[in-house]
Amino acid sequence: MRTFGAGNVVLLLEALENLSRERTVEEAEELLVLLKDAAGRVVAELADWCRG
Amino acid sequence: MNGQEAVATVQAGCFDLVLMGVQMPEMDGLEATRLIREQEMQSGNHIPIIAMPTHVLKGDREKCLEAGMDEYVSKPIRAALFRDTICKVVGPKLATRPRADKDEMLSTGELDWSIAMDAVDGDSRLLRDVIEAFLEELPVLLEGLQRAIANSDMDSLGRTAHTLKGG
What is the pTM of this model? Predict the structure, then answer.
């Protein structure tokens, strides 16, 4: 994600990394929802670029 | 990451937002924020900082704001509130950020294409290969995150998130 400058996704992943140290499953689940949403937009943008 | 590393990272990079721990080894988030704000007095910049304390202590919020942080998110983190807080501190700045040069005009949506092109030294064919490999790998990594959470395997969660982030 860093390679593509996906700053929002990198922030979410860093939050997940930090949560993992504190063992908070519920918060990780909520962050994963946000991450999947943002990752979906990243995929769409990358796929558009490859097509275009 | 400790507070000293956080200050050095902010100095070395260009970020839209900092999620700052409060209880950190060597230098806590309060001191790190004070140092960042002191440096900004010379540069005239202001990077939004949101406090994310590991443990919530009485008076923490006030201390964080007094140190120069812009917002405070206590745990458990709620997705909607977290998103609103980020929008509150980052949204207006991003919405009004001037498009200074050609490279920055390449930044649209979720991605910064100037960073992507730099990563492959401007080789668009190589970038296409990297993207295709990434698009194959992404579902596997997302599934790994899901599985790690389902299994409460937080070590695996951290490793997979790190891999997906790209180091």
Answer: 0.51
